[in-house]
Structures are given as C-alpha cells and as structure tokens.
Task: inverse folding
C-alpha cells in the first residue's frame, strides 16, 4: 500500500528502516498509553480466503437487496472492503473508546501470519523497541491472538498484550450500566478467559486497572477451570431469568396491537441520535464506539396516530466476537421479534456498504435477515448538498425502501415516520364515516387524540365525521358507524 502518509503536524516517524511497516508516534497525555500493531497478510490459504470472500459476497448481496439498490450488470455488487490501514484506523477508534491514548502504531505487511507471534520474531523485536521508546503501557493487536501467540508475544515485549476481541470486551465492560448488560459482558469475558488460563498467573483472578484488566464479575476469578465453569453456569442461569422476564414483558406488549420497530446498524452509525430524534428520550448518544449496550424502548406516535415501540440496540462491528453475539442474545431478541427493522447506515462513510454487509452477517446469525426493513442513511448533513439532493431523489424513485436523514439536524424525520407508518401491519388503519351524538364527549375526545379527522359537520345534535383510525379505535366507536 506504499509508504504511509504523515497524519498530523505533531506526528513523527519512529523508524525509517522498516520496509514493510510504518511507525507513528503521537504526543502522550495522562491516559493509558497504547501502541497499536496491525497486520496486512497479503495471501491467505485458498480455502479460508475463498470461504471468507463467499460469505462477504453473499452478505453484501443480501444487504443490497434489502436496501433496494441495484447491483452491477454482471450481478456482483461493488463493495469497498476494509484495507489494512482502514482496519488499523478502526482499532485506533476502539482504543480511544476504551480510554487509551494511542502513542504509536505499526503496520506489518507479510505474506501470511506467523503461527508463533503473528508478525514474526524479527518484527516483534522492532515493535518492542518502538513501544519502549514511547513508554507504551499496553500493545493492542488488530487481530485475534491465540492463547499461545499472546503468551509468546508478552515474553518478548514484556508488556501487556491485548487482541481485538479482548479490547471490544473491555469497551463493553466499560459501558454496561444495567445488571443485564453486565451479566452479558461477564459471560462473554468468561468464555474468552477459559482457553487462556494455562500459563497465566494471579492477574487472571484479580480486578485491575487499565484496558483489558477489568474483571468480568463482582467476585475475583480464580484460575481454576472448575470455578470459572461454575461461574459460567451461574451467569447463564441469571441470564435465563432475564430472558424469562423479557419474554413476559414482551407477551404483555404483544397482547396489545402495538408493533415493535428495532434499530440496528454498524457501531457509531448514529442509532442513538436517531432514537432521540424520533422519541425525545434523551438516551446517551456519543461518537465513541459501543456507547449503547443496554436496550431502551420508547413509544413513538406515527402520522396515522398509531403508536409503535422503538427499540435501540447494541451496534455491530466487523468480526464481532461470537461470544458477544451469544451473550447478548437476550438483548438482541428484540430484533428477532420486531415487526420492522430500521437498518441505520452512515451515509458519509466510504465503507457504508461493507459495514452493511457486516450487519447482514449478524442479522443472519440472529435469523432476522428476512424481516421487513427500511434502510436509513444517516448523517446526510456531512455530505455535499448537491450529492445529498441527488441521493434523496434516487431513493424516492426506488419506492421509499431507503430514506435519507440527518438525526443531528432532524432532517427527514417526517419522511421516515411516513414510511414506517406504511409498513406497519399491526392495528391497521381504515377510513370510516361516523355519526356521534355531541353528548358522547369521551368518544369525540378519543377520536381527536387517536384518529385523523378529514371532515366534521354538526347536525341535529350530532357530529358527522369522516376519519381514518386504527382498528383498535374503530372497534370502540363501531356503534356510531354510518353508511
């Protein structure tokens, strides 16, 4: 990919003698100092590469089909994929979300990962020197490390080593607020720890400070596998209780004709900001990744005067750890049971189509890929005005399967609500004529609040009305229907 570009005025190149990598050093601050290590493996085994390409292509086609977009004439979607530098940039954002100060980074290019140390012993010695020169506290690898690789690297580096999965788990531990969220994160951490107990010391059983050291539970974890397995069973039992309570709550909701609409999307696509714009709920919205972990449900009034329940969910990410998908299944059941999915994408991102493909992979794992959905392209305020206008016009010609909005500025909210209204099947709306005595103040007030009134005439002590109302309202005023 050529030599790296200078990233800012205060960055310096820490090494000039690296043919396949570039080191960037940043000014430190008081936060934990992290050094990033990326790997650009040029070739992979044919079987794994083929299966990965097939999965990505299938997911991409599904995402395009769901959005209503038209693929190329040859049937293959044009999907830009993460390259190694963009992947490292995403790791940098993850590190900052974990509270780290990135003081340096290096990208290693080689034909294939080294089975012992991922980047090779020679490169690792160079990384050790670069990390020492900037006083790094922890090394963050943009790759999943096997337990043996992690131990081998730590012996050479003499610093804590965190892989991509452990970093994501740490961010989840940092942001989980409810007991349910904490249990789900703990379960994922326990499954991550289990194969890494061999050769570990007391650090695995202590609560500590810094990235990757936040203990997953309220008690100290011993390195004994039986104790961890016992803790896993206990957490799973508690989560099963959460699922049962959730199922009871969902059953009560489903007894009323109120549809649930679930927000899904890549992390930092603006789901919580959109949630706030539609519900005025005031939930936390942040540019940090995975700011939302705990599900929030709020009612939204549609133009037809119907109500729907809008559910905000955890964001997805490329290579989302399977342990997290499994652990958060209780939360993600809201997606499985939703009547409609709003798939939120970042319209300003060059990689929005590839991010959509990653979301599609998770939806498929949740068996929710066939749910009715609307693709919501957010952050149009970051696009050129002419480009945004052309995209909105194209979306309108495609029948409204894609809606362009700016959750920050509130643009496009009316169009989105109209589209949701048209796709919701629960409590269907019908147009009826009514003749209601003026003495029936309760019924008249109900219609004012829950129906669209198209005409109203006062005649012989009664009100003749033409209204459009949900079926639940029509049933209550059925005695006043007129021909």
Result:
């Amino acid at each position: 990919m050529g030599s790296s570009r200078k990233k800012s005025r205060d960055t310096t190149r820490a090494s000039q003698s690296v043919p396949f990598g570039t080191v960037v050093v940043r000014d430190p601050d008081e936060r934990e100092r992290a050094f990033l290590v990326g790997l650009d493996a040029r070739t992979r085994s044919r079987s794994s590469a083929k299966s990965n390409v097939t999965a990505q292509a299938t997911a991409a086609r599904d995402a395009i089909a769901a959005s209503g977009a038209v693929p190329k004439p040859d049937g293959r979607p044009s999907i830009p994929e993460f390259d190694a530098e963009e992947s490292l940039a995403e790791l940098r954002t993850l590190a900052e979300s974990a509270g780290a100060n990135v003081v340096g980074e290096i990208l290693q290019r080689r034909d294939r990962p080294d089975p012992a140390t991922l980047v090779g012993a020679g490169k690792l010695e160079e990384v050790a020197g670069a990390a020492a020169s900037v006083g790094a506290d922890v090394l963050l690898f943009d790759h999943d490390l096997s337990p043996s690789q992690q131990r081998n690297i730590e012996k050479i580096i003499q610093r804590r080593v965190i892989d991509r999965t452990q970093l994501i788990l740490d961010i989840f531990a940092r942001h989980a607020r409810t007991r349910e969220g904490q249990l789900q994160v703990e379960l994922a951490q326990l499954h991550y720890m289990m194969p890494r107990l061999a050769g570990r010391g007391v650090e695995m059983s202590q609560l500590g400070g810094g990235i990757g050291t936040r203990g997953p539970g309220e008690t100290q974890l011993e390195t004994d596998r039986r104790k961890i397995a016992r803790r896993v069973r206990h957490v799973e039992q508690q989560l099963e209780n959460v699922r049962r309570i959730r199922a009871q709550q969902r059953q009560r909701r489903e007894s009323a004709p109120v549809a649930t609409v679930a927000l899904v999307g890549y992390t930092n696509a603006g789901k919580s900001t959109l949630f706030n714009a539609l519900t005025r709920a005031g939930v936390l919205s942040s540019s940090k990744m995975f700011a939302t972990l705990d599900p929030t449900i709020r009612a939204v009034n549609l133009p037809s005067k119907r109500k729907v329940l809008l559910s905000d969910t955890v964001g997805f990410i490329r290579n989302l750890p399977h342990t997290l998908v499994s652990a958060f299944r209780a939360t993600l059941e809201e997606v499985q049971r939703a009547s409609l999915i709003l798939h939120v994408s970042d319209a300003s991102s060059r990689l929005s189509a590839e991010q959509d493909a990653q979301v599609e992979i998770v939806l498929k794992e949740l068996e929710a890929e066939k749910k009715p959905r609307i693709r919501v392209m957010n952050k149009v305020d970051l696009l050129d005005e002419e480009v945004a206008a052309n995209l909105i016009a194209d979306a309108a010609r495609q029948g409204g399967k894609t809606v362009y909005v700016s959750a920050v500025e509130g643009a496009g909210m009316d169009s989105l609500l109209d589209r949701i209204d048209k796709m919701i099947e629960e409590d269907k709306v019908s147009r009826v004529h009514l003749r209601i005595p003026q003495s029936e103040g309760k019924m008249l007030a109900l219609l004012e609040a829950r129906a669209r009134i198209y005409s109203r005439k006062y005649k012989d002590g009664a009100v003749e009305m033409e209204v459009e109302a949900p079926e639940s309202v029509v049933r209550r005023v059925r005695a006043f229907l007129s021909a």
Notes: The two ends are 74 Å apart (CA to CA). Residues 12-162 form a domain with the Rossmann fold fold (CATH 3.40.50.11060).
